Amino acid sequence: MTSTATAPPETAPAPEPTAPARPARRHTPAWLVLPSLVLLVAALGYPVGWQVVTSFQHFGMMQQFGQPPEWVGLANYASLVTDPELWVIVGRSIAFCLVCALSTVAIGLGLALLMGAVSRAGRLVLQVALLLAWAMPVVASMTVWTWIVNWRNGLLNWALERVGVDAQGHNWLVEPLSFLVVAAVIVVWMSVPFVALSIYAGLTQLSPEVLEAAEIDGAGGWKRLRHIILPLVAPVISIVLLLQLIWDLRVFTQIKLLQDAGGVANETHLLGTYIYQLGTGAGDFGMASAVSILMLLLTVAVSWYYVRSLMKEES
Amino acid sequence: MSRILGPASSRHSTRGSTRRSVLTVVAVLVALVWAFPVYWMVNSAFLDKATLQSSTPTFLPFGGSFDNFATVFGDAGFIRALGISLAVTLVTVAAAIVIAFLGALAISRFRFRGRRSFILALLLIQMLPAEGLFIAQYKMMSSVGLLNNVLGLALLYTAAVVPFTVWMLRGFVAGVPVELEEAAMVDGLSRTKAFLRITFPLLAPGLVASGVYAFLQAWNEFTVALVVMTEEQSRTLPLWLRGFVQASATRETDWGQVMAASTVVAVPVIIFFLVVQGRMSNGLVGGAVKG
Hints:
Chain A has helices spanning 22-26, 28-54, 61-64, 75-81, 84-117, 120-135, 138-149, 155-162, 176-203, 208-216, 221-249, 253-260, 271-281, 285-314; strands spanning 57-58, 70-71. By secondary structure, chain A is mainly α. Chain A has a single domain, classed as MetI-like fold.
């Protein structure tokens, strides 16, 4: 709409000999954008709309069998807001999200600094290991981790036995707290590589002259880190923290698969699995839609800053 | 560049190099911990059931065999899931490349009304969690009869990857100077021909990167598949793998086979991932890293 730096020169009114072709070209961008628009409206826009509408309806088992849904206004939201279970789940999701995102960024920053301080070979080994963990498909990672924490003959209990903890036959998935700790460890393990490698990429942009100057001025390792390195990579850190918060709020696969592997379901739900259980388990689409809208609003609120920063880059 | 925290000059070289060696050892240990689950998957894939069930773990696959892999490839359920995953993934990759390419062309080569809103919408949509939408998507697919349908799932996947692929390709299209095309047009090529002969080949790496991105998403996706592929007959590979996890809750599992199956699912992903990793993270943190 407004003129931007990326505006290509070809759209400027340059005198061209092929004047008759002009009117046709005015519609070109519309035709180019059309497929994406149609697709996004059909596959995402329509469901969002349906969800908004359904969140104001009573849409339960009877409606599944063809009975028309009944308008209930804000009743779904009202019963959600007054439902203590929902608040427990919202609280648990936010706590899980914060713990995972903050530990991921802390560990990621540590590993990025480590990569900056070691020899070339050491760095390469660490980068390869992180890339391997990052590349693992989430379901394959989950099968390995369920095997590692398996109570019958998993590696975790064996290792704990070796260091003197009586863990034989202990099932870590039946207690809500240890279940969530296992889930958090897995989520952090999966997320750290992206954070560490992104922050390291930011570190490599620092100019050696600045660091050298600081050293000549007598700044020790800690001072250089605190006053020079961290402020300079702060933009990267805030972006990856934001992305982690968004991603960890929606964590679903890890929780669902750990529940499948024998975990307690009712006391370990996060927002995603709760919606799934409301919708496909209990068949209460009205309530499921209302919780979904809540989750979308939470995500959009957190994403807004991220999207704004990307838009700044664009213009 | 390589010595961000190390001494910048050689004044403390002895002290610095001892510190560096210690830290290198730490880095290698961390690397071992991080790669361990991947190693454990591959290691267990070669071992038989009896070995895996013994009370002491076997850390090296000596005496292992390819039996577990043979079992996986002989499993009708695996072959069917593989076929479905391949079909969904191929349709998603092809559709995403074409649609995203057109969209990227529009936002990087043209200035039009609504351009900024379109980009804003793409970026916001990209952040929408599937978990906040899947109930509605399930209802939609069931009302148009597309549950358990490869094309239906591919439709949802394509919509999920198009925003990011448009965003990623936009950089590539913008990177090809329009002057190149114009020069070719001065030399007598038509606009379309100039585009096909000059710009298109230069975009190839970008198209490959977006294709691989779409591949990874469609191949790995679990959540949406769980919701819309409700029948056992229409399971994708991640859903098929989930079957083992579920079974492990109630009965003794042949972990060797599960790990072999996981390895088979993971290997193509790891290879493709290493190809595009740099471009993907650039699309995500872009300006922040450069700035």
